[in-house]
UniProtKB/TrEMBL annotation:
<dbReference type="Pfam" id="PF13672">
    <property type="entry name" value="PP2C_2"/>
</dbReference>
<dbReference type="InterPro" id="IPR001932">
    <property type="entry name" value="PPM-type_phosphatase-like_dom"/>
</dbReference>
<feature type="domain" description="PPM-type phosphatase">
    <location>
        <begin position="3"/>
        <end position="256"/>
    </location>
</feature>
<dbReference type="InterPro" id="IPR036457">
    <property type="entry name" value="PPM-type-like_dom_sf"/>
</dbReference>
<dbReference type="InterPro" id="IPR015655">
    <property type="entry name" value="PP2C"/>
</dbReference>
<protein>
    <submittedName>
        <fullName>Stp1/IreP family PP2C-type Ser/Thr phosphatase</fullName>
    </submittedName>
</protein>
Length: 288
């Protein structure tokens, strides 16, 4: 896999209205192996609780992901490595959930805190995404933009039932009501999806402070035209702030480059993303 190149960039911004940034983000790319990840968490709860919950979550995932690629991992087969990545994300999310609950029990002023999460990991040509809540992951390549996550939210459920159009959801009074979050129940349902990457791509992770203002077509246009690609994170945040910036805004990008594929012509039936697994459940409403 020596032909693969990975680069990351990320930024979080307080926005134009909020007094505190309750978002947290961490980006990482290993210079020695084909390994990179981005984690974005959007906290809720006020009184600094949201910031605590999002930081606990990002720090917990960082700790576990940083320890993953070791001698044992490298000695495993690709299939085993993929299972280990999935287990690492699920385990670290469960641990973060418990840490938030413990913090809430010790500090009553944080009783309403919780956080969304979206995390993406690339190992060689394998991409795995975990998410809870309405922070999103997108993938852009020469075929266009693909949303890799489905919001765990009231409006998404209404869209799925045909009660709202995506356009109506953008202005719905319940658009910020999520149905899943870390730190709310003893167990959290994490949606995990995975794919095999077959060509150059940009992976965007963001909090809803970005998607509140920029629709998918705008996100696609920026990813397709703004270069250097990793600097799109600054453009996204600037645009969201110019549109109002009522929420904290976070954006992280992984740039995936397969030099061998770049040099070779793809066949007509090449698959851009090949789903490897999928799971989805629902949970009670959480008002943010």
């Amino acid at each position: 896999m020596e032909s693969i190149s990975l680069a990351v960039n990320g930024r979080t911004d307080i926005g134009q209205v909020r007094e505190e940034n309750e978002d947290s983000i961490h980006c990482y790319s290993d210079s020695e192996t084909d390994f990179a990840y981005v984690v974005v968490a959007d906290g809720m709860g006020g009184y600094s609780g949201g910031a605590v919950a999002s930081r606990i979550t990002v720090d917990t995932l960082k700790e576990h992901l940083d320890e993953l690629v070791n001698g044992t991992f490298l000695a495993c087969s690709p299939q085993q490595q993929q299972l280990m990545l999935r287990a690492c994300l699920l385990d670290s999310c469960a641990i973060a959930n418990q840490k938030i609950l413990e913090a809430k029990s010790l500090r009553p002023q944080f009783s309403h805190m919780g956080t969304t999460l979206v995390a993406a990991v690339i190992w060689q040509n394998f991409l795995i995404v975990a998410h809870v809540g309405d922070s999103r992951a997108y993938l852009w390549n020469e075929y266009g933009l693909q949303r890799l996550t489905r919001d765990h939210s009231v409006v998404q459920e209404m869209i799925d039932r045909g009660q709202l159009t995506p356009e109506q959801a953008q202005t719905s009074q319940v658009r910020n009501h999520i149905t899943r979050a870390l730190g709310v129940e003893n167990q959290v349902d994490v949606t995990i999806n995975s794919w095999n990457l077959t060509e150059n791509a940009l992976l965007l992770l963001c909090s809803d402070g970005l998607t509140e203002y920029l629709d998918d077509s705008t996100i696609e246009r920026i990813l397709a035209t703004h270069r250097p690609a990793l600097e799109c994170v600054y453009r996204f945040i600037d645009d969201a702030n110019q549109c109002g910036g009522r929420d904290n805004i976070s954006a992280g990008i992984i740039e995936y480059c397969n030099r061998a594929q770049s040099a070779a012509a793809l066949s007509d039936d090449a698959i851009t993303l090949r789903p490897a697994n999928r799971e989805d459940t629902t949970q009670r409403k959480v008002h943010r």
